[in-house]
Amino acid sequence: MKKLFALIITSLCLICQADEKTNTDTPSQPGTVVQLTVDGLVCNFCATNISKTFSKLPEVSEVYVNLAAKAVLLQLKEGKKLPEDQTKQIVTDAGFNLRGISYPKDSFNSIKENLKKSAK
Amino acid sequence: MLITSVTLTAQMISAPGINFLRAEYGHTFSYTEIGRSFTGFRSVGFGGYSFNTGEGKSIEAEVAIVNQLLKRWNTEDSQANIVIGGGVGRGRSGGREGWAGTASVLADWENRRWHIMLQEQAVFVPSASRLVSTLMGGWAPYLAEYDEWAPWIYYTVQHENGAGVGFAHGPSLILMHEDLLIELRVMISDHGTHAEAGIRSLF
Q1: Which of A62, B30, B97, B178 is deepest in the core (most CB within 10 A)?
Q2: What is the DSSP string of A29-51?
């Protein structure tokens, strides 16, 4: 019985480890990815403007803009936050209107790939 | 003595802190401008113009230009702008040199598939002036993301008064990729058919 119990525990551990290894695209910590929906985001230079604007912020490590979804995806640096009112002001100052803001739990790259796929 | 040139100055208003470079070259003109956008939807640039009618008349100017976005409408799928601009500097024409000035007003509307723009431009130098009205319509054959090459096909109709008088029209191809815009244009007028090219970049 002890051997069977040990075998079950070992098997469970191996399954858990295998699952962790296959799930390399681990979800980001809540609040580290911010997704904006922006009105007026219709042209290449609009996308460049907003991308460069957010890239300059010390809180932001990566920016992705998707014109089809009118989405701006921000990866925040570890431990950094970007308050909603500040985000809205930045979008307004760049010449656009912030329609929506969300804090998805999926990783930056996972959302980016989904946005790219849905744009096709 | 028609002089043609086309500008898309709506794009000269960028987000605060973004620089721009714009260069256009044609049979009768060249134009290079470098500038920066500031808070309040204002851009300040410095440009060098050279227009030559090909009939012995020419205008040259070096001007500091301020563009101001008067109004922008953003909707979910489109954007519209009204931009005014003015500049002052030094200019030359017909052997005379003195103060030069520019003035422009632009209105445009665009979505991801269509773009239409109407622009009035004026350049004043000693003993000459140049007034150009431009109407441009553009269409994107397919929708591309900004990190892909995005082609646009435009048709331009232009009327000029002042140093040159007359109509010109022609198609152009614009290719956009991230912070780069390349424009290749053919303009047709009573004075022939000429190729023009433009490039602009945000950095």
Answers
A1: B178
A2: PTTSEEEEEEET--SHHHHHHHH
Is residue B4 in a domain?
A: no
User: How far is A3 from A106, CA to CA, in rounded Å?
Assistant: 40
Domain range for residue A70?
33-119
Closest A-chain CA to B69: A95
pTM for the whole structure: 0.82
Q: What is the chain A residue with the closest CA to B12? A: A45
User: What is the tens place of the pLDDT at every residue in A16-43?
Assistant: 444 444 333 444 445 599 999 999 999 9
Which of A38, A39, A43 is the best mutation test for B, with the most CBs of B within 10 A? A43
Task: Identify whether B3 is part of a domain.
Answer: no
- Is B75 within 8 Å of A67 when comparing Cβ atoms? no
pLDDT band at residue B107 under the 50/70/90 scheme: very high
**Distance (Å) from the alpha carbon of A35 to chain B's nearest alpha carbon:** 16
Q: Is residue B140 part of a domain?
A: yes
